[in-house]
Design a protein that fits this description.
This protein is of the alpha/beta class. The chain has 7 helices and 8 strands, in the order ββααβαβααββαβαβ. The strands form 2 sheets. A 6-stranded mixed beta sheet has the order 3-8-7-4-6-5, with helices on both faces. It has a two-stranded antiparallel sheet with strand order 1-2. α6 runs parallel beside α7.
Length: 197
């Protein structure tokens, strides 16, 4: 079975949806109502251009910490965010230590960042969490949390929220794996930025 949304294939197979349901990560939706829902926008560009325009952006992260307590932010969008906000790695590392594997999506208000975990905690070696492949289960959990957080933080987060293909590139996931998850939970307040080269 394939579901179409505005002419775009959203789900390539019923098996994908069934696997999400088996983990309690999918809730049935009236397929006939999908076309009337407001859907996430997609553009091509550099996400940092939108940040420089005072927009909120999503920063993908791992759940982990180094010996000094800071979160390892050594690659990708997290590395750039750590350069922009020098206190971010320590602030987020402390949060990861406090909440462990349950570390949730959160706001870093001073720099208009929304931190979005995609890589699970390596409980034996938390400083190595960054080396893991991004987890589909964690991406689903974080996407649901992101949708809810933006909804309840509407007084803080004005305008659109820009996000990359979460869990792809350094996370090792494909856009085909991630896109159906984002489209299932995110509405037109979100803008998916496909990196232009």
């Amino acid at each position: 079975m394939t579901v179409k949304l505005n002419g775009t294939f959203v789900f390539s197979s019923i098996e994908f949806i069934d696997s999400l349901k088996s983990f309690g990560l999918w809730y049935d939706t009236d397929i006939n109502s999908i076309g009337s829902q407001k859907v996430m926008k997609k553009i091509s560009g550099n996400i940092w251009d939108f940040h420089s325009e005072k927009k909120w952006i999503v920063i993908t992260t791992n759940i982990g910490w180094k010996k000094d307590g800071s979160n390892p932010m050594g690659a990708g969008i997290a590395k750039t965010a750590a350069y922009v906000a020098e206190d971010l790695p320590m602030w987020y590392g402390e949060r990861c230590q406090k909440f462990g594997a349950k570390t949730a999506v959160c706001l870093y208000k001073s720099d208009r960042f929304i931190l979005f975990p995609t890589k699970e905690l390596n409980e034996d070696q938390p400083w190595m969490s960054w080396q893991a492949e991004s987890s589909i289960d964690l991406i689903v959990r974080s996407t649901r949390q992101l949708a809810e957080l933006v909804k309840i933080s509407s007084k803080i987060i004005a305008g659109d929220v820009y996000l990359p293909y979460v869990g792809c590139e350094n996370g090792g996931r494909s856009k085909k794996e991630v896109l159906p998850i984002l489209e299932a939970y995110l509405d037109d307040r979100f803008v998916l930025v496909d990196r232009s080269f």
